[in-house]
Write a structure and sequence with these properties.
alpha+beta; Thrombin, subunit H; six-stranded antiparallel beta barrel; 20% helix; globular; disordered N terminus
Length: 254
């Protein structure tokens, strides 16, 4: 019994240490207050980012298992540790799903372009020091190759923060060719790449962040993360005007 107790304590400490590795829990909650966990029937499926009090942006491929808005919920707010799991204690309902009109998804490792969608909350969030939105890039603003950036999001119940360096699309294309014929000519214009993750993160929708702005959302790897091929993100500069159109449409109804 004593051995079992020590083992469970060891696992608990590992979970907590991974979660607060870049600062105290309070610091993380404030720094990444724009992050949400998206759930389908109560189970985590991907990450999302707050861009408006009532609108969450994520990848469209996250929402292909169901097109019924009420099947989804999000978790936002302070991080809670209990029962050896890290989770959020505030659940918000979804009443609308809006897919980017150019979104194409053809299977797990097949063509995936303009991979973006917006979830509409049943009620606007109340912004606090631990729930808030992230800024979008300015018009025609993009992130440049060799820029240092972060990818951060929820993978199940663990907060992942990884440092990456943005690649040019040509470098990404050449790297992808090493892993196969690259039949879809990845990356396409609506995608942006970074160097390989230090640790595979299959939590799609996690944001690519630099200078406190979101420049991309993790969509897929050409041949899977384990292959070492570069992670590909939906390029925010290509969907920025669409996001603002949705924001203006929502605000006009209020």
């Amino acid at each position: 019994m004593l051995k079992c107790t020590f083992f469970m304590l060891f696992i608990f400490l590992r979970v907590v240490s991974r979660t607060i590795a870049e600062g105290s829990r309070d610091e993380l909650e404030r720094k990444y207050k724009f992050l949400v966990a998206i759930e389908l029937h109560g189970n985590h499926v991907c990450s999302g980012t707050i861009v408006h009090a009532a609108l969450i942006v994520t990848v469209g491929s996250c929402l292909i298992r169901s097109n019924v808005p009420t099947d989804y919920t999000i978790r936002a707010g302070p991080i809670i540790v209990s029962n050896l799991h890290v989770h959020n204690n505030t659940v918000f309902k979804i009443v609308g799903l809006i897919y980017n009109p150019n979104f194409v998804w053809m299977g797990q490792q097949r063509k995936r372009i303009y991979d973006a969608a917006i979830l509409v909350l049943s009620e606007p969030l109340v912004f606090t020091d631990k729930i808030g939105k992230i800024e979008l890039p300015a018009e025609r603003e993009d992130i440049h190759p060799n820029t240092k950036a972060l990818v951060v999001g929820w993978n199940g119940y663990r907060l992942h923060v990884q440092k990456v360096i943005v690649l040019s699309n040509m470098d990404c294309y050449l790297k992808n060719k090493r892993f196969g014929a690259n039949l879809h000519d990845y990356p396409v214009d609506s995608q942006i790449c970074a160097n390989s993750f230090a640790k595979c993160d299959k939590d799609i929708g996690i944001p690519l962040i630099a200078d406190n702005k979101i420049y991309g959302m993790y969509s897929n790897h050409y041949q899977g993360c384990e292959s070492g091929s570069p992670p590909m993100f939906t390029r925010m500069s290509k969907i920025r005007s669409w996001i603002y159109t949705i924001i203006r449409r929502y605000d006009s109804l209020k």
